Amino acid sequence: MPHRTPVCTGPTARPTHSDARQRWTADLSASVTVFLIALPLSLGIALAAGAPLQSGLVAAAVGGLVCGWLGGAPLQITGPAAGLTVISAELIQSYGWRTTCAITVLAGLAQIGLGSLRIARSALAVSPAVVHGMLAGIGATIALAQLHVMLGGDPDSSPLTNALELPGRITSLQPAALSVSALTVVVLLAWPRLKEHGGALGAVTGRVPAALAAIGLATLAAVLSDMRLPRVDLPSWRSHALPQLPEGPVLGLGTAVLTLTLVASVQALLSAVAADKLAAARGPGHRVPRSDLDRELRAHGVANAVSGGLGGLPVTGVAVRSSANIAAGATSRKSALLQGVWVLLAAGLLVGVLELIPLAALGALVMVVGVRMINPGHIRTVVRHGEALVFGATAVAVVLLGVLEGVGLGIAVAVAVALHRLAWARITVERTVSDGPASLRPEAYRVVVRGQLTFLAVPRLSRALAQVPEGAEAVVELEGSFMDHAAYEALEDWRTAHAATGGDAEVKGRAGQEIGEPSKAHTCTPWTPWRNHQCTRPPTGGTDGTHGSPASDGCRDDDGAPGDGPRGHGFPAVPPADPDSPETIRATGPAAKAGTGGTGGAVGTAGPAHTADTGGTARTSGAVAVDGEAVGAGTFEPAGARHRTHAHSPTRSHSRRGQLLGGVRNFQRSTAPLVRDELARLAREGQRPSQLFLACADSRLVTSMITSSGPGDLFTVRNVGNLVPPPGEESGDQSVAAAIEYAVDVLRVESVTVCGHSGCGAMQALRSGPPAALDTDATPLGRWLRHGRPSLERLQASGQASGQATPRLADRETADELEALCLTNVLQQLEHLAAHSCVGRRLREGTLELHGMYFHVGEAQTYMLDTTLADVRGSEPVFTAVRADPVTA
Within its chain, how far is the Cα of 189 from the centroid? Predict the structure, then answer.
């Protein structure tokens, strides 16, 4: 196959000077915003930790420069964080500042090792309740300590001592310190409201971060009133303390390094994931690469090693600053780099200004940050999920025992809660009343089991079943999702014994189906192709009757391995054929080789018949496929035909019918009981689909699977190439136009979607076949594919001055010319669709929407056209990947 040069698409393929300038301006503006937030917070965190105030500036500059350059999360801001304040304070209290710097270096080296092992995502396995509890405990510890600073005193290293001494501190407070602190808190809380409700003044002041405004106004008030308060003291950088070799017990130092490594890593990774979510919420116009968590962890390791080596605080990802960076419009890692540069310049040029800041104002700033770490939204989520015990235990233990001890206790409680849920089962016994005369009513009992039924619940289950009298009717309803072997045996033994006494017992699952011994043969899962099914295999030399053949359920290969093809059932093994080999394809038309990229899978389509119904398919003329392989114009012999039994032989037709009926039996057994009520409702009320879905007949494109739709949702029309003949050019086949008119005018659908897919055989035939062959009326397929010629012409003209741009994918380059044609065909068929009078009328009324979709079969990825039909005609059409929604509470 000749090499094809990829079609250059995507934002990076054709950058313009205007776009680059806009992105640079956005990053510059965001960096200034983050710098104004980070500057006071870095000083406040250093103050709260009891570290030299320069260390906060060092950490902020190193975090921005190193992680901005090396990090895997482009929009995350790294620096000193309140979440590490308690750990830093404990280390300084125990080992001194210089040894704490050395511990920070060792923790950074440990992070580099963990990132090199590529286990970053393992940190996300920690229960969110433990993480939120840890942050809440740290926030409470910070708030208790900084309350003393706000009142003009010095905090103790113990949160419990700070809480006990707080009443005495209130009685001996310093009015000047309290006034500055109060002003800081009021500005911090009122500034966001001023931005929202302040009109023109709010619009101007809203550009200044609340933290900077609070510190600035408090400093201005202290200077103007000549208050004598302790202020920021930044000694000369010549006397800046650097790390020294650790001194102390090896076990204690190892525990300190482990604590700092784990907490900093978990917080950094969780912050990176949160930044990804915020960036994705901005829409397709602001796309950035998703975070590489292992790279991000290694970058944090380098940053901690450098920060500790230069006498700075430990760093981690900061969610508040990261969210501010994203909200300010940052588009790349340049904003984090520039933020580090601004902090570095401020540390060298603004020392005189920084030394005017009262310590009480910084204490108030950090106190508010600590209180906000106790997030009511997180608490409500944790309570709603039944993990309040884990949250509370972690938070209290962090306050009373320390961060590492608190996290360890929280994890232990979380494991205990998970085990309890696995073993817990609530079992109730209810007596039911049956209709009929009292003398003829048998006693009936209902035993309901809620929760997971394991061997730990067998004693309670036995006691509950013993309450059912002998000879009574009983129904046991299992509402959990798991039952182990011990519980199953206990139920079966009781049911057998109860039946021996003349009673009648039935065990039902959540959906009402009867529970019995699990099938040893049925191993199928949803959306499994027939060739991998264990329950739809044709029988070995037996019948394929509709009432259940001897081998139709649970058929396996002779070697006992499921899913290896139909060996052992009267079928010769068929090796995959080379689509380009002469043994595979013998055609009289020049486009016959188009089948190599065409319809594949279990079922093909054929014939001019057209049927349409909700949740089903409408197949139109021109669809020619044999054993799931589509063909181009001309005569086609399917791949591997010379190795197969003749298509009209009794054995072959008999086996294919058995395979089809096997799938139908599987539906009747597994799916029909679940959808019977809904189908009965649709039968009574009639179909009311909201969507018309026009797709290719390719068997790999399962419309209900990729749309997660069910009966009554989609009115589906399928044909070769997902083509929509323009009005007046149907060439005698009115089936597509009739389906469109019925859906739009009779069913009154609200949306119409044209869905193309990768590797389309019809598009391959258009692209590779000579134009003269496609103009012929010799075959139905040739006549049908003429409706796709405008798509090919549109693609060929897109590079010229035609006003039509080549469609592209938002997150990657177009793979080849075939994919470009498949995307172009979606646009062209949307225009054909809009030309139909019924569609045009509804569009003018504003009661109908048209959408374009592209499904990449190999990636199992769906792309949606971002623009409307009007935008497609005047701008570059972009297909954006549809991503899974995050799991929310």
Answer: 34
Cα 743 from Cα 716, distance rounded (Å): 9
Question: What tokens appear for 433 in the block?
Answer: 């009343």
What pLDDT is attached to residue 414? 92
The token pair at 160 is: 């419990």
d(CA 760, CA 625) in angstroms, rounded, equals 13
**Residue-wise over 723-750: b if at least 16 C-beta within 10 A, else e?**
bbbbeeebeebebbbebbebbbeebebe
**3 state DSSP class of 186:** helix
Instruction: Name the residue among 525, 518, 719 with its Cα closest to residue 610.
Output: 719
Query: Which residues neighbour 24 within 8 Å (Cβ) at sequence distance 6 or greater?
Result: 334
pTM: 0.54
H or E element that contains 853? strand 849-856
Compute how many other C-beta atoms are within 10 angstroms of the C-beta atom of residue 452: 19
Q: What is the pLDDT of residues 819-860, one digit of tens each?
A: 999 999 999 999 999 999 999 999 999 899 999 999 999 989
- Classified as helix, coil or strand, 635 is coil
Measured CA to CA, the distance from residue 870 to residue 849 in angstroms comes to 11
CB 819 within 8 A of CB 795: no
State how far the alpha carbon of 279 is from the alpha carbons of 273, 322, 798, in Å.
10, 10, 32
Give first-to-last CA distance, the chain, whole Å. Answer: 51
Contact 509, 453 (CB under 8 A): no
The partner residues of 431 in beta bridges, in order of sequence, read 445
Amino acid at 174: Q
The answer to whether residues 295 and 115 touch, using CB atoms and an 8 Å cutoff, is yes
Task: Give the three-class secondary structure for 46.
Answer: helix
Q: Is 33 in a helix, a strand, or coil?
A: helix
C-beta separation of 850 from 752 below 8 A: yes
Q: Which amino acid is at 781?
A: L
DSSP 716: E
Local structure of residue 7 (DSSP, 8 states): B
Within 13 A of 742's CA, how many CA atoms are on the CB side? 18
Q: Parallel, antiparallel, or unpaired: how do β-strands 629-630 and 714-719 relate?
A: unpaired
Contact (CB, 8 A) for 602 and 533:
no
Q: Is the dihedral of CA 776, 782, 784, 790 positive or negative?
A: negative
Q: Between β-strands 861-865 and 849-856, what pairing exists: parallel, antiparallel or unpaired?
A: antiparallel
Strands 878-881 and 808-809: parallel
The DSSP-derived string for 81-149 is -GGGHHHHHHHHHHH-HHHHHHHHHHHHHHHHHHHHTT-GGGGGGS-HHHHHHHHHHHHHHHHHHHHHH
Cα→Cα distances 732→299, 379, 728, 791, Å: 66, 66, 9, 21
Per-residue confidence (pLDDT) for residue 482, from 0 to 100: 80
What is the rounded average pLDDT for all residues in the chain? 78
Starting at the earlier edge strand, list the strands of the sheet with 425-432: 425-432, 444-451, 473-478, 504-508
Tell me the pLDDT tens digit for each residue of 577-619: 444 433 333 333 333 333 333 333 333 333 333 434 444 433 3
Tell me what the mean pLDDT of segment 148-164 comes to: 83
DSSP 63: I
| pLDDT top residue among 558 and 448 | 448
pLDDT of amino acid 593: 35
- Kindly report, residue by residue over 257-295, the tens digit of the pLDDT: 999 999 999 889 888 888 888 887 776 666 778 889 999
217's tokens: 């106004």
